[in-house]
Amino acid sequence: MQDYLEILNMILKYDEKTNHLKNYIAPVIADWPGQLFIRRAITHLHKNNSKAQIPLGVISFVPILGPLHVSLNSREQVIQIFYSFFKKLFHSVFGLRKKFAKKPRPWRINLLLELVYSAWIKIRSLITEKFGPLCKFTEYQTLIDLIDNIISAKRKNYNKAPLAFLSDIFYWEQNNPPIKEVIKLFLVNFNDYWIENIHSRIRSSTTCKDNADNIQKQAYLLDANKHSAFKEAFMNTKHYPYSPSELEFLTNKTCLFLLQQFQLVFEEYQKILKINTTSSTTKPKPKSKKDKKEKNLNLKFITMEDIDERVLPTGYHTSYPPIFNSCDNCHKLFEQDSDGTILICGHGYHWNCYNQLEFKCKHCIKYFNEGIWSNVKSFVKRLEAEDKDKLTKEDLEDEDENDDENDDDDTNNLTENSENIKISEKEKIELDLQNAINNIKTW
User: In whole numbers, what is the pLDDT of the chain averaged over residues?
Assistant: First the structure.
C-alpha cells in the first residue's frame, strides 16, 4: 500500500498548485493491486484508531475496474481452464506439428475464441436439435456452457473486485452524485488500454535485472519516441495475418472439429440413457462442506483431459448438483421434450415446478448469495487489516504475465502456413463439412 500512497502523494503535491481536485474526484482505472490498496487506504482513512498514515486527499481517488484488464485475463482464463479442449482444437485446425503453449499469446487466444464462436453459430441449431431441449448430460452441458456463453471463470481476485465496483454503482444510484451520469454516458472512456499498452512496451524493452531508475528512464524514452518518424521508417511493422477467406477456411475446420466432439458426446449420452431410465422421487442428499472442497472429480470427459472442477456449469458447484434427466425440484423424470426447460446453470425443471419457483433456480440463487457474502466479507477483512501491506501468493498468481516463451509464435510467420491454402483444400474441407452435417441424422 505504501508504494501506491507515494504515487498518490506525488499527484496530490502537484494538485496543490493546480487545485484540479478541488470539489472533484479522480477515477483511477486500476487492476487488482490498485483496486485493493487504494480502497484499503480510503478504508483506513475513515477507520478509528488506524495506525496507517493516510493523507486526506486520498478521498479524491475512486478506483474503477479496468474493462480491458478484466477482458484479457478472462479470455486467458478460459483457455487455461479448458486447456485440453483448446489444445485438441488447435492441433485439429493447424496441425499436430504446431506447438500449443501453456499460456498462449493474446492474439492466439482471441483467434481460437473467435473461431469457436463463428463455427458454433453455423452448427448450433443442428446440435441443440439433435440433443433435444432437455438433455442434462454433464459433458454436453459443460460444452454448451463453454461455447454458447464463453463465461469468465472464477478468478481468485475478480470475484471480489467486481463486487466492489457494483457496490459503488449501487451507492451512486441511491445518492445521485454527478459521476453516476458520467458512468452511464461515458463508461467506454474509462479504459486502461493506454496503461496496459505502455506497460507492455516497457516490459519488452527492459529485463528483470533493471532497477527502478532504469525502468523509469526507459519509460520516458518510449513515451518521447512514440511519434518518432525515424523509428517508424525502420521498424518492423506487423499486420493481421488472416484474410477473410482464410478465416472462413479455419472456421470450417473448427466446425468439423466441433461436430466430431459432439458426435462422441452424443454416443456416450445414448449409452447413459439406456442405463438411467428409472425415476427417483427421493430428494438427493446435499453435498457436505467436505464434498464441496473435494477437488478430484469422478468424471471422465471424452472431449477433455485433466478436468478442472471449474469447467462445470454453475449448478454443479451448488449443494444440489443437477439430477440426470430429471426435474431438480420434484425429482421426477422428464416425460417429453416440451415438459420443462434446462437452465444455463445445468439445473432443469418441469414448467409447473419452474412456475412455482417464480422462474428462478433456487439452488443457484442460494449458491450465489452465499458466494457473494463470503467474498464481500473476505474483501472487507482484507481492507481493514493492519498488517497486510503486501500482495499474497493468490494475488501474485492472478497478476502473472503471460508465460508464452514456449509459444512458437514467430511473428513473421503468424499465418500457421495458411497463406498458401490451395483452392482444392478449401473445397475438400467444405465438402467434408457438408457431409458431416448430413451425417448428424445417423449419429
Answer: 81
